[in-house]
Amino acid sequence: MTLKETIKKFIPKFLLKVYHFKLALLGAMIFGFPGKNKNVKIIGITGTSGKSTTGDFICKILEEAGNKVASISSIRFKVGDKEWENKYKMTMPGRFVIQKFLKQALDAKCKFVVLEVTSEGIRQFRHKFINFDTAVFTNLSKEHIESHGSFEKYRNEKLKLFKVCKNIHIINGDDENAKYFIDIPANKKLIFSIKDKKDYDFELNVLGDFNIMNALAAINTAKVYGVDFEVCKKVLENAKGIAGRMEVVNKNPLVVVDYAHTPVQLEAVYKSLKNKKLICVLGSCGGGRDKWKRPVLGEIAKKYCSKIFVTNEDPYDEDPMDIINEVYKTAGQNAEKILDRKEAIKRAVKSAGQDDTVIITGKGSEPWMCVKNGKKIPWDDRQIARDVLAEKNLTRGL
C-alpha cells in the first residue's frame, strides 16, 4: 500500500480536508499568493469533457487578440511562447505546482491564465486562493462516482468553482444540469446553446460535432473580454485540434486517437465517425475506479463498431484481465480480447481497409501507462499506430 493510500485509509475524512486545505494555503503562501494578483485574469473551465479543447480555443483566441496567455491543461503547461508537457497524469496538478505556475505566469506578465478545474482538484482545495475572474461550464455526465459517492456529490464539487467565482459565468445551456450552474449568482452570465451556431458563421477543421459546443464556449468567453467574433472565426477555422483529442494519425486508412473514457464521450466520438466502418480499440481506464462504466463501454462499442479489440489501459493495481473481461462481456461477438495494448493497436490498424476508420480511445496523448506498485511505463498510442503504418508502408495523407 502506498503512502497516499495509507493516508486515505486511516485518516478521518475531516482531517484529510484540513490536510488538503493547509497544503493549499502553504503553497499559496510560499509563492506569494499569485492567484490573488489583480494584474492577471484567471479563467477556470470545468465539466466532464471538452475542458482541454475549450481551453485551447480560448488561449489561441486571446493570443490572436494580442494578449499574453498562460494555461494548464491535461496535456501541457504554457506561459506565453514557452510550452512543456504535463507529465503528472493529472488534469489539475497539485497545489504547489499550480501556485508555482501562477507565479511564473505573473512574472512573465501574462494578462490571462486559463485553468482546467476538476472535481477532485476542488475536493482537495486546489482551486483555493485563486481569484477566478470567469468560470466556464462545458457539460456534465456520470464520472468519478465511486470516488465522490454519487453523481450529485460529483456535480456539487463542480458547482463550487462557480460559487467562488463571483464575476463572469459562461454556461452550456443545453446540458441537463445547466440549471444548477445558472442558479448561482454572478455579475454577468452568458448562456450558450447549439442553436447559437446559426448566429456564428464558422467552420471547424477538427473532427467531432461536439467540438462546436467547445468553440461556442470559447467564443462567449472571448466576447466578455471584448474580442471581436472575426478574431474567433480566424482562430477556429485554422485550429488543427490538440494532441490526443480526435487526433488524426493517418488519413487513408483513417486512424484517429482520442481521450474518450466515459460512456458519453465514447458515444459522441463514435457518432462523429458513424459514416465509416469503425474498427475500435478500447479498454476502461483507471483500475480500481468507476467499475460501473466497464460493461456500458462494451455495450456502446457493440452498437457502433464492426470490430472491437478490448485491451489494457491503466490498470494500476487491479488485474488488467479482470478489467478487460468486464468490458468484453457486453461487447458482442465482434469483440476480441488482447491484453497487450500495443498488439491490439497493431491488429486494429493492420485489419483496416482503405475506407475503414480505426479509432483508438482512452489514453489520447497520455505519455504513461500506469501499472501496479505505482510504476509508469512510457506510452504513446499515436506513435504505436504510426509505427505499424510505417511497417506496412500505409502512411498517407498527412
Automatic annotation (TrEMBL):
Domain spans labelled Mur ligase C-terminal: 244-364
Coiled-coil stretches noted in the UniProt entry, renumbered to this chain: none
Start and end residues of each Mur ligase central domain: 45-221
Domain of life (superkingdom): Bacteria
A GO term for molecular function: ATP binding
Descriptive protein name: UDP-N-acetylmuramoyl-L-alanyl-D-glutamate--2, 6-diaminopimelate ligase
Organism per entry: Candidatus Staskawiczbacteria bacterium RIFOXYC1_FULL_38_18
Taxonomic lineage of the native organism: Bacteria, Candidatus Staskawicziibacteriota
